[in-house]
Amino acid sequence: MIYEFKGFIPVVHKSSFVHPLAAVTGNVIIGKNCYIGPGAAIRGDWGQIILEDGVNVQENCTVHMFPGKSITLKGSAHVGHGAIIHGANLGRNCLIGMNTVIMDDAEIGDESIVGAMAFVKAETKIPPRSLVVGNPAKVIKQVSDEMIAWKTKGTQLYQQLPQDCHNSLKAVEPLREVPENMKIQEGAYDTLREHFLRRQESHNKKE
């Protein structure tokens, strides 16, 4: 659902996909190839929210702010299921883990990874390429080239998802029985652990 509020109408690029069960309100600008999942709420009622190109805000996320604040989720920012972004700015190509809470005036640096269920306090400044975990969240190490490559590949799946949704997503009546020829989707992405194990196996074979 897309809602006007006090004369502000959200702007959504035609290449992006906002699920019908999401709510986008007011002064919100959504760039190209963005995905907004069902249950997400992006409320630009008290300030402006900008999602640059390639951002995904997954299921049951909330993006909001205190009155008079405006925030930006920079290009390819990846916001995992159930996360809350309240008045914080996200850097380019960062990853926000599931059920993370990031509070007002926090700044997440480019290509940083914030672990699931972390709590980032208000006004926290996270440097670029930081791996952040815990409550309160702390930087524990730098993000490696391999980790950011893994993250980037996952985000690319979400950048393809809007077009896939435009092409194939539709409301239907459910089947009442499982078809005999029921297919299972092929894997297109490894977990981080699987990614490192696969790389190690490949390295061992070369030796």
Question: How would you summarize what this structure contains?
Answer:
With 207 residues, the chain is an alpha/beta fold.
Description of the molecule:
- It comes from Corallibacter vietnamensis.
- This is Phenylacetic acid degradation protein PaaY.
- The protein has 207 residues and is an alpha/beta fold.
- Helix content is 19%, strand content 30%.
- It is built from two helices and 20 strands.
- Strands 1, 2, 4, 6, 8, 9, 11, 14 and 17 form a nine-stranded parallel β-sheet that branches. An eight-stranded mixed β-sheet has the order 3-5-7-10-13-16-19-20. A three-stranded parallel β-sheet has the order 12-15-18, with no helix packed on it.
- A hairpin with a 4-residue loop joins strand 19 and strand 20.
- The longest helix is centred in the last third of the chain and has 24 residues.
- 33% of the residues are buried.
Structural class: alpha/beta
State the shape: globular
- Helix residue percentage: 10-25%
Largest sheet: 9 strands, parallel
Nearest-integer average pLDDT: 94
**SSE topology string:** EEEEEEEEEEEEEEEEEEEEHH
Q: Count up the helices.
A: 2
Beta strands, count: 20
Radius of gyration using CA atoms only: 18 Å
Taking pLDDT < 50 over at least 5 consecutive residues as the criterion, the unreliable ranges are none
Could you give the distance between the termini? 55 Å
Q: How big a fraction of the residues is strand? A: 25-35%
